[in-house]
Amino acid sequence: ARPRTGVSKQDIREQIWDYMESQNIADFPRPVHHRIPNFKGSYRACQNIRDLEVFARAREVKVDPDKPLEGVRLLALQSKKTLLVPTPRLRTGLFNKITPPPGATKDILRKCATSQGVRSYSTPVGLDSRVLVDLVVVGSVAVSEKGWRIGKGEGYADLEYAMMVSMGAVSEETPVVTIVHDCQVVDIPEALLEGHDITVNYVLTPTRVIATGCERPKPTGITWSKISCEMMEKIPILRRLLEREMQAGKDVTLQDELWHPSSLQKAPPSTVTRPQHVPGLEEDSMGAAPGSLQGEGPPRAADIYVGNLPRDAHVSDLKRALRELGAAPLRLTWQGPRRRAFLHYEDPASAQQALSCLQGLRLGTDTLRVALARQQRDK
User: Biased composition, Polar residues: where in the chain (predicted)?
Assistant: First the structure.
């Protein structure tokens, strides 16, 4: 299949989902929209992994919990390999190790390979476990013969891979396999790829084994600027990884807030929701030193301080108010736990004009304190 030009990842997803449903290629659970789609012939596609040398020599295999990968999970168990399955939505950790009971029959192994098996026959694998994954198997919505992959859009497969890199479980050389229907193999414009997207080395379909020869570098760890505070709240293991990387001196600034581990007690990440993108109103993810606007120097003449934010304010509330008043800045630095934000404008004249628009600005019942950031610092 050849997507039209100017296509987005979501366009490609919708095209695949619609086609699989309309042609009755889709299999339970249906409809396949917003899922890694299961398809008729998925077990046949899974059997092709036996032809791969990388599977034959692998001892520890990480396989996603998606329905179309059930056949690979069963083959891994039958081959006496260590099977690691990510915790659904990473709610309680990163991996579960599937441990069939001694002398398990084929029927029990089949059950172990299902989602029920993850619940009934698994033990959690901690962050400190010395896991070395020899092969990664992921689900996809679409994949190209070049090895470029599109998931269902929630980013969990990319995040799981980045977390495995961070804990030393995989390296650039660890092969990645995906299993799809033939109709899911499409051309994907390279412009759609981002640095945190994982690529695949092998694509297995019911009729083909494709060695992609992909040389595009895989992610080298977690891109913290892509992680929202909402995700930090939902995924406890991310918080532990962030603390580790922070102690190692890495930049762990998040996407939508200046957050660090101590704020878990002082101000729960739930006080900030992941904002919707507003054109012309970008968030700035610069680290800020206490008592200053930016770590890199004093406030600029084109910066505005906004204080007295309500404790339960969301960054999206402030964005909406700024947009309605026609005072959208170039960038915004949100410091919700400290009940303040900074607005960065193009030049002092734009900042002065915005300042006059923002006098008397209210969020809920609270009137906000608005001033030029330099004047506020002098006070």
Answer: 262-274
Strand partners, 306: 341, 370
- Residue 125 pairs in a beta bridge with 95
Do strands 82-86 and 95-98 pair parallel, antiparallel, or not at all (unpaired)? antiparallel
User: In whole angstroms, what is the distance from residue 261 CA to residue 274 CA?
Assistant: 18
Q: φ, ψ for residue 246 (rounded to 5)?
A: -65, -45
Buried/exposed code over 205-219 (b: 16+ C-beta within 10 A; e: otherwise): bbeeebebebeeebb
Sequence-distant (≥ 6) Cβ neighbours of residue 333 within 8 angstroms: 258, 283, 284, 286, 288, 293, 294, 341, 342, 344
What distance in Å separates the CA atoms of residue 287 and residue 377, rounded to the nearest whole number?
18
SS3 379: coil
pLDDT in tens, the chain (379 residues): 554 556 899 999 999 999 999 999 999 999 999 999 999 999 999 999 999 999 999 999 999 999 999 999 999 999 999 999 988 777 777 888 999 999 999 999 999 999 888 788 988 887 777 889 999 999 999 999 999 999 998 888 888 898 899 888 999 999 999 999 999 999 999 899 988 899 999 999 999 999 999 989 999 888 888 887 778 878 888 888 888 888 888 777 776 544 444 444 433 333 333 333 333 333 443 333 323 333 334 567 889 999 999 888 888 888 888 887 888 888 899 888 888 999 998 888 888 888 888 888 888 788 899 999 877 655 5
C-beta separation of 37 from 20 below 8 A: yes
Residue type, 283: E
Helices (H), 170-281: 229-234, 236-247, 263-266
H/E run at residue 342: strand 340-344
The three-class DSSP label of residue 256 is coil
User: Angle at which helices 156-166 and 236-247 pack, to 10 degrees?
Assistant: 40
Question: What is d(CA 319, CA 329) in angstroms, rounded to the nearest whole number?
Answer: 9
DSSP lists the bridge partners of residue 84 as 62, 97
Among 341, 345, 340, 364, which residue's Cα sits nearest to residue 356?
A: 345
Q: What is the pTM of this model?
A: 0.67
